[in-house]
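Progress report, Aim 2. The chain analyzed during this reporting quarter is listed below.
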Amino acid sequence: MGFAEKYVASIGSSNLMDDAQHHQTDPLAAAALAGDIGALLCRVKYADGTLNRMFEGNQQNLAQLLRIWTAEVIKRGRFRRWVPENTAWDAAAAQALYRRVAEKSLAHWLDSKCRGCSGTGVKVLLGNGQCTSCKGTGVAPVYGVAGLELERVKDMVSELSAIYDSHSGRAGSLLRGGDM
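Predicted structure tokens for the chain:
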């Protein structure tokens, strides 16, 4: 069982006691102790209802994550010189690009499951063929952008995945090592 499964199981636990016999909150503690933006990514994706849509989550967490991620995308975009910012018009256009990339990359990372096959990669009606929407991957393509912006969104989705993977690795090692 990976860290995400343990995290989701601890959220859905009926007994959140933490004593000698009960250790169901350990993944929550590990996620918090692992620190950085990854803890907020876990909380928004798994704990706030984004993944299963069964309830309305804590929208303040999502708003905070969007603010942090937008600032990070702006920093990365400027460092990587995605677009020139020589004039006031260029700077305003760059800011708009950074914000769109941040919003679309975060939205895609939080919910990238293909709608056509519900993430299975198999045609819904026939059940024995590859889904044409996602080409069998189960992951929806990024919609609504093209060209430079599409490449930047894909790049930032992979950055989010790397941040989450790094955070999950640190939290998982905390769980295994018992250093909590």
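Residues 117 and 124 are 6 Å apart (CA to CA). The mean pLDDT is 77. These observations will guide the mutagenesis work planned for the next reporting period.
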